[in-house]
Amino acid sequence: MHVTVKVATMLLSKADPPLCTCEFDRTLEEGIDVEGLIAELGIPRRLVGSVTVNRKRSRLERGLADGDVVAIIPAISGG
């Protein structure tokens, strides 16, 4: 299955290995969920603030389907 992944710039260097671009296509195993994708990308879970799938906020347990567009948004702190 193929999905499009969009990752916020500040998360690129935090992935292991670091990601080179903010938007890319990824081939995934059938049945993977958002949390599995984040793990596969090597992005530390604690840095993820929210995720959208097809422009709608989604839970990490949401299963992905062919053609989905997943945006990974960092946690933001400050004061």
Q: Nutshell version of this structure?
A:
The chain has 79 residues and is an alpha+beta fold. It has helices at 9-12, 34-41; strands at 2-7, 23-27, 48-53, 56-58, 69-74.
Descriptive notes:
- The chain contains 2 helices and 5 strands, in the order βαβαβββ.
- The protein is α+β, with helices and mostly antiparallel strands and 79 residues long.
- It has one domain: Beta-grasp domain (Ubiquitin-like (UB roll)), CATH 3.10.20.30.
- It has a 5-stranded mixed β-sheet.
- Helix content is 15%, strand content 33%.
Tell me the radius of gyration: 12 Å
Q: Rough shape?
A: globular
Q: What percentage of amino acids are in beta strands?
A: 25-35%
Please give the share of residues in helix: 10-25%
What is the tally of helical segments?
Answer: 2
CATH fold annotation: Ubiquitin-like (UB roll)
Major sheet size, sense and barrel closure:
5 strands, mixed
Structural class: alpha+beta
CATH superfamily: Beta-grasp domain
Q: What's the CATH architecture name?
A: Roll
The number of distinct β-strands equals: 5
Number of domains: 1
Q: Briefly, what CATH class?
A: Alpha Beta
Q: How are the strands of the largest sheet arranged?
A: 2-1-5-3-4
How many angstroms separate the termini? 41 Å
Instruction: Please state the average pLDDT score.
Output: 95
Q: What order do the SSEs take from the amino end to the carboxyl end, as H and E? A: EHEHEEE
